[in-house]
Write a structure and sequence with these properties.
By secondary structure, this protein is α+β, with helices and mostly antiparallel strands. The chain has two domains: about 35 residues, no CATH class; about 150 residues, GTP Cyclohydrolase I, domain 2, CATH 3.30.1130.10. The chain contains nine helices and seven strands, in the order H-H-H-E-E-E-E-H-E-H-E-H-E-H-H-H. It has a five-stranded mixed beta sheet with strand order 5-2-3-6-7, sandwiched between helices. It has a two-stranded antiparallel ribbon with strand order 1-4. Bound molecules: zinc ion.
Length: about 200
């Protein structure tokens, strides 16, 4: 990868041999491998010994989870907050593992819509809750830095399943708790791919 980064620097009109750039290929290599380390992560290992059987059927919410990801159309960052809620049947995920779950899917080349649904689908698959809701609010540098479609550089996506989809009061309770009333239910399912980041340009 370091040879490619050197070529890229030259292609951009830079001199890869000048002092400030000498170690850049190595740094970029390391940074990119970290930022895409989610590909190598194993969900079951991440959640290992953190799925518990409990007698608890109230909503579990973890909000304001910071995440950083790379948009797959431009390889530029998008980042923001992820809010997750679920209603257990008889299984819960250890609270400290939920941000790790977000990391596994955000440290990849992503689009915001897929990131949202992958987190929701994994929770459904692992603990079969009565319902799960994931809302992501993010700023896309591919939009804001390039000065295009500025009004869309901040995007909200959501995935609502089970009780959060079927029961308006449950959904409103969640949206009230994360202070985000404007999100329509299950918008992620009806959204065209690439809504958050317009991939054509
Ligand atoms: Zn983009």
């Amino acid at each position: 990868m370091q040879d490619l980064i050197r070529q890229l620097l030259a292609e951009l009109g830079e001199d890869p041999d000048r002092e400030g750039l000498l170690r850049t290929p190595k740094r970029v290599d390391k940074a990119l491998r970290f930022l895409t380390s989610g590909y190598g992560a194993n969900i079951d290992e991440v959640l290992n010994e953190a799925l518990f059987t409990v007698d608890y059927n109230e909503m579990v919410i973890v909000k304001d989870i910071d995440f950083y990801s790379l948009c797959e159309h431009h390889l530029l960052p998008f980042f923001g907050k992820c809010h997750i809620a679920y209603i257990p049947t008889n299984r819960v995920i250890g609270l400290s593992k939920i941000p790790r779950l977000v990391d596994v899917f955000s440290r990849r080349l992503q689009i915001q819509e897929r990131l949202t649904s992958q987190i929701a689908d994994t929770i459904r698959e692992k603990i079969t809750p009565l319902g799960v809701a994931v809302v992501i609010e993010a700023t896309h540098l591919c939009m804001s830095m390039r000065g295009v479609e500025k009004q869309n550089s901040f995007a909200v996506t959501s995935a609502m399943h089970g009780a959060f989809r079927d029961n308006a009061r449950t959904r409103m309770e969640f949206l009230e708790l994360i202070k985000l009333r404007s999100v329509a239910p299950a918008v992620v399912d009806s959204m065209p791919a690439g809504y958050a980041c317009i991939g054509e340009d």
